[in-house]
Design goal:
It is built from 3 helices and no strands. With 104 residues, the chain is mainly α. The longest helix is centred in the last third of the chain and has 31 residues.
Length: 104
């Protein structure tokens, strides 16, 4: 049985829906970080945004390195490093809006 996603039929719609979801999450995180009145609400929003970005980076790097490298510790190390770097970048990006809001 040939499934549509295995034949590549749904690839375009998966990419478009993934990009739309990523944009929605980014806008929601930025909005929450700049408009939340309480620091705890802002921190919870930043954590949620950062956790989803790190989770996605972990799985993306794990999948891509599985194509290139056999099962080894390097695959896990690279996935952890990517998750950390993407998480730090997303925290900085979303929290940067809050810093600009209070600075001006």
């Amino acid at each position: 049985m040939l499934l549509p996603h295995r034949a590549g039929i749904a690839t375009g719609s998966a990419v478009v829906s993934g990009a739309a979801l990523a944009l929605t999450i980014a806008v929601a995180g930025k909005s929450l970080a700049t408009r939340a009145p309480l620091p705890m609400v802002r921190a919870a929003g930043l954590f949620a945004f950062t956790a989803t970005a790190s989770f996605a980076a972990w799985h993306a790097v794990t999948s891509l390195t599985a194509l290139l490298i056999g099962a080894s510790a390097w695959r896990t190390i690279r996935a952890l490093l990517a998750a950390f770097l993407v998480g730090a970048a997303s925290w900085r990006e979303v929290a940067g809006g809050a810093d600009r809001r209070t600075a001006g």
